[in-house]
């Protein structure tokens, strides 16, 4: 009688909780040998482990085509494999109020509703739900995820619940909202309980702050108002600064592949700029244009920039985090401009890229070689900086081969001085020898004996 009453409850109540958090579902009675039971097109499993879940699902015939709903409660699993064929025929899947140590694989098949709430999940494969074209509801609430996995929304009124995930990053939510901001497809469930973490910046000291879902949605408004026509503007992050205890939106601007000849004016609070693959020659606006005051990451690969000397003493060179100037026309690197920046220990995260530039290699390049090697922790592509003629890597150059210059008469001065010293010593030796012979044997050797007598010789006669 007890089993019959439980069977009746399953038939009546299962449709109500098939994909919701809901109240506790009816479970197989404690007297049941197996922890899973079937009622029509629904299977209910409670208080299971890896082994008892596999055993119970096999007994309940999970692979039957008629199975539409699976409800698993209070499961303690070492691994949950989303790629398993067992889930592919289901329409509704709920795994709630348990503990899943490792979540792996990707769902596939006809699932329309997936509930994984309350399982202490911390990491989910980014593509776990990409192969579910019919998915309309996803519940990841009450877990420990830090990033929302990729979701493909093909139908209107997609419901997403990520409430009570205290470690999820705001940029993950923001990216999802931006992707579907011009549609009415995405709807958040329990929005008042949905919070996320945003970077908190005290200049270069970072901590985190909690933002509500409503604050995240506000970040998008007004983001494109001042964006240059040729560029794409996105929210980079939201900061609570020490000087301004209100939310500030930091932007990333992408102006790559637009045939630009000059750096464009930027919207306020731009922190990241990509102008790669253009025709830009000068970095001067980076130093004098007020709209560039907050730029910290500057990417200008594949342009026509010839010099970085203009950056000397600029605010950008004091505060930058990334400076990428790969494949430009830079002929020399004034190392002193960047050396001061590298010497500041609180900027350990600085990154500089000069790869593909062809320097004019001469004696001064030997100093650049040592500078590249000494700062290779900052210059990621230090081994890709080349010489202009032989295309030899700068770090491989031999100073003795490139320090070649035309000689003049001053190059022989040491030989002349050496010859004069030799002649002087030879003369002193000859005079000393002649004097010794004269005193010892009473005559002068040749050629002293052939030399005419001078008026001053009487001074030496005895």
From TrEMBL:
Gene3D superfamilies: Ribonuclease Inhibitor
Leader peptide range in chain numbering: 1-18
Positions of the LRRNT domain: 226-272
Domain of life: Eukaryota
Keywords, comma-separated and alphabetical: Leucine-rich repeat, Repeat, Signal
Keyword Metal-binding: no
InterPro entries hit by this protein: Dev_Immune_Receptor (IPR050328), Leu-rich_rpt (IPR001611), Leu-rich_rpt_typical-subtyp (IPR003591), LRR_dom_sf (IPR032675), LRRNT (IPR000372)
GO annotation, cellular component aspect: extracellular matrix; extracellular space
Protein name: Leucine-rich repeat
Species, as recorded: Riptortus pedestris
Lineage: Eukaryota, Metazoa, Ecdysozoa, Arthropoda, Hexapoda
